[in-house]
Give the backbone structure.
Amino acid sequence: MRKMKKKIVDIVTYFVLIAWTVVVLFPIFWMVTTSFKEKLDVFLGPKYLPWVDFKPTTKWWVRIFTVERRELITPFINSLIVAGVSSFFAALLGSMAAYALTRYRFRFGPMKNDDILLWIVSQRMMPPIITALAVFLMFRVTGLLDTHMGLILVYIAFNLPLAVWIMANFLSQIPRSIEEAALVDGASRAQAFFRVVIPLVLPSLSATFLLCFVFAWNEFLFALILTYSKAQTMPILIAMQHFQRGPQWWDISALSTLAVLFPIAITIGLQRYFIKGLIPIGK
Amino acid sequence: MTRGPYFVSMRRKRGGRVAQWQGRLFLTPTVAILLLLTIFPFLFTLAMAFGKVSFEGGALRVTLVGARNWTRLIHDARFWNALVVTLKIVSLSVLCEYLLGLLLAVLLNRRIRGRTFFRVTFLLPMMLAPIAVGYMWRMMLNDTRGPFNDFLRHLGLGTVGWLSDPHVALYSIVLTDIWQWTPFMILILLAGLQGIPKDYIEAAKVDGASGWRIFLYVIFPLLAPASIAAIFLRSVEAFKIIDIIYIMTGGGPGLVTESLTLYGYSVGLRAFDLAYGATISFSLFFVVLASSMLFFLLTRRARQISLE
């Protein structure tokens, strides 16, 4: 009786999990296959299975990388530069701040370490539209509109709270005796941090970097407001192409596929961290 | 968060002043960037919300005019519409995401085969660019060429104007949001479930409690902090919604899917009425503030319950 009940629960479990897997994967599958469809296969109602329902073509992909290379690849490279550089600094500066907060005792007026940490982390909750309008004006005055530099600065600020939060959690788990040994041996604090602590947390630091990268890569609102041509990123390109070309699903699907490639690869690469709990929430 | 002792002994050895100076040096860049790009713009927007923005000979000028923008806001039907739309989207999607996330997290926490595969797959949607997600769902929900209406047609049911029918469009946005953000709930709730000591569940089993009762009286209460955190963090994010709306409906049909962020953006940067755009955006701050306060009250209450 008990065994049978367990079996039924197992069957229901697998059924639900597999059903949700289909729900998760189908839209992604739809987008990827659409980028390989002929125009007619898009216009003549939904076609699902490649080689069964329709004959796949690679011509849109070829076109992206040849005829349309100039206008389409620039935003891709912009995204890479902006997300890459900003995440590097977010992870670096964030772990420095996290290191300070886990190793020194601070007191700014009534604020102690935990208050400072909370203050930094809570900046993430700010609705971006509130700061975006003012940042638009600041950048207009300083000439940072539509530049890599401007977007990089904004994304560093955007990702710092997350980086500090994650790294504070990891750094608080590193035994202090290791750095103390280095300090006793005559290393300066900066040396201890860069030569001893950073190598120790390098895996976590790379995970933080990659997570920041994904968020910066996907970010929409700031990019929409702060760029218009030279520094446009992938999400903006997709939105603009969509408004210009309307029903040309194949091209935009190819671009969207390109835009989700890195995040998917990063998610798979970071699976270990996600399962162990990368984001220290609820502790 | 628990933390080991600070470098008290070190400081004594190396001299307190030097150590403090170095610590500040490590903290300064982060604080400076946040002050410059979050706090200052925040205050600037606040000033704009109480002022008038003009460009005289290319120079930017903000003149304070009192609460004029706010009176306009209170009498602005479009603002109230955007507020209600935002609240509807947030409450509906966060509720569904939580329930679905809880179910899936509980199932993922069982001893099953292919656990890693399921976990990684389930995480995928939240890592994808919302613009791409909005675009794929726009295609899926297309009236004539999308799979959704195709399925309905095969089932002999009529088609639905997923994004064109004013009664349905909002729910299509909610559906997309659920697809993208249920993973976030799974992530946090699963971590919460894994933190529940096995002994508690074993003890309940020994006492003869059924699986359902164990869930209701042992697991669910112990999961309360994770639940509250998940719901709170997700709500705060959901209030900011713009990207999937921008690409799926652009706020339409009519204004039925126009969120606060989208309205603030349109007024501030499309109509270039920065002062009023700032006022609309700033109202979102109060919404987020109110929900944060609610969250802190709830956490305190939950802590009291778990202490009893």
About this structure: The domain at 70-277 of chain A is CATH 1.10.3720.10 (MetI-like fold). The longest helix of chain A spans residues 69-103. The first strand of chain A starts at residue 107 and ends at 108.
